Amino acid sequence: MTTMTETSARFREFKMPDVGEGLTEAEILKWFVQPGDTVTDGQVVCEVETAKAAVELPIPFDGVVHELRFPEGTTVDVGQVIIAIDVAPGSGDAPAPAPAAAAPVQEPVEAAGSGDGDAPKGRTPVLVGYGVAESSTKRRPRKGASAAPEAAAVAAAVQAELNGHAAPAAAAPAPSVPAQAGAQDGGRPLAKPPVRKLAKDLGIDLATVVPTGKDGIITREDVHAAAAPAVAPGAAPVPPAPAPVTAEAPAAAVPASARETRIPVKGVRKAIAQAMVGSAFTAPHVTEFVTVDVTRTMKLVAELKEDKDMAGVRVNPLLIIAKALLVAIKRNPEVNAAWDEANQEIVQKHYVNLGIAAATPRGLIVPNIKDAHDKTLPQLAAALGELVTTARDGKTSPAAMAGGTVTITNVGVFGVDTGTPILNPGESAILAVGAIKLQPWVHKGKVKPRQVTTLALSFDHRLVDGELGSKVLADVAAILEQPKRLITWA
Fold first, then answer.
1. Is 461 a catalytic residue?
2. Which are the contacts of 88, defined by CB distance < 8 A and separation ≥ 6?
3. Does domain 269-488 have CATH number 3.30.559.10?
4. How far are the Cα atoms of 153, 377, 387, 407, 411 from residue 366, in angstroms, in the given order?
5. Between 474 and 173, the higher pLDDT residue
6. pLDDT in tens, 22-69
7. Domain map of the chain by residue range?
8. φ and ψ at residue 243, rounded to 5 degrees
9. One fold for both 1-143 and 269-488?
10. Do 424 and 399 meet the contact criterion of CB atoms below 8 Å apart?
């Protein structure tokens, strides 16, 4: 599907693409270009965050950025125009950009090329639109805007305010700005939205603030300077002394912002909330627990770290736990299923896409290892390492989080003994692994210090009855207690 429209022979518009997975909106995290910058076919112009992941969007044509329709932090519906490109710069005066706050009319997304969905020759499809050719993945440095008259410089400053960025540099010398006003000809002071909020919180009228920013834009420092107490000429600044506390003095009012913080629910966090509520109130959860001696598993981990066949991959207890769960599923394949509500069917899966719950700065995500059941131990270790690294870097794709069948969540890394995990939507079971601790344990008739952990298995009781769930959990525990069963049971 295409993500561009033509407004004239000169200007082309790029729409928020349909990233698939049933998503209808995305938040603009960061713009990599500004009005006046030159862009080339395949150059990444912005990063957006969907409910699944953060992705970068390349522009599919050459030109000069004419207008950014939305500032950073804005959630935009799929199909709305986000950027306008001048594909024939220098051919005449460009029309003034539309205000960024005004939402453009959403147009239907048309098919690319001849209508068969194929990208033009030489391009590889990425998300929607056209991918980045190998020779064009390197971003070009920004170019300054061409020389413009005073009116153009003021318009650029206004556009920068609306987009939440500094105005692009002009080749011609910037006109002088009245020191007192810091405003455009209409009288409204120039300041970014965060600066306006700061001034409002401090009770400062922006019309009285002396701007020091480029093109007469008021900065945070300017607002703080205006809020500071006046100092007599020639006198050294004196820090304000704390007010004496008296019994008669009324308690100072505490700003609402100091007592609570409101965070918009969007992106990954919004998706997590919706998925967990849907899972908790759709699938009847049952959770079972078992505490197990994993001393032999910890010894196996230490031995594998020295094994030359495992060189170059990360070996940890999670690797053995993942392999143990895969073996338990092989012995009890009925647990690997899904509930089809529309057709009232149980769908048995003859493959295992093993999900690993990962905490990232953007929230909890569950990417999965495709066809984990077919992987050898070194292959599984490499896949786990790649999954964790990609998630930590915030580069997990929506496709990597789709199609999971069962999941592991390792709460032990936080020092937690265990929990009652909620199923990842569409999956039949999730295994929580607690912290591995040295504890007194009866071993061969004597109390000895042993490495012990607690496992918790939650499963969908529509698919998995108590006997089946118990067998799966018992098999995992037995393998971790006697890892040689990985050979005899596999």
1. yes
2. 9, 10, 63
3. yes
4. 47, 21, 10, 8, 14
5. 474
6. 567 888 888 999 998 999 988 989 988 876 677 888 998 899 999 999
7. 1-143, 269-488
8. -70, 135
9. no
10. no
DSSP codes, 211-279: P-SGGGPBPHHHHHHHHSPP--TTPPP-PPPPPPP-TTSPPPPPPHHHH-------HHHHHHHHHHHHH
Q: Are 452 and 292 in contact (CB under 8 A)?
A: yes
* 1-143 classified as CATH 3.40.50.300: no
C-alpha dist (Å) from residue 461 to 50, 141, 253, 286: 31, 57, 53, 6
Take residue 154 and report the two structure tokens written for it.
Answer: 């003021």
Nearest CA-CA partner of 355 in 394, 410, 300? 410
Q: Give the integer Cα–Cα distance in Å for 363 and 268.
A: 6
Task: Considering only the C-alpha atoms of the chain, give the largest distance between any 2 of them, rounded to a whole number of Å.
Answer: 91
E strands, 327-480, in order: 337-340, 345-348, 354-356, 358-360, 363-365, 368-369, 406-410, 429-433, 437-443, 446-460
pTM of the model: 0.54
Identify residue 167 by its one-letter amino acid code. Answer: A
Contact 153, 170 (CB under 8 A): yes
Q: Give 151-161 pLDDT, tens digit per residue.
A: 444 444 444 44
| Candidates 66, 165, 224, 461; catalytic one | 461
Across-strand partners of 363? Answer: 360
Amino acid symbol at 340 = D
A 10 A CB-CB count for 5 gives 16
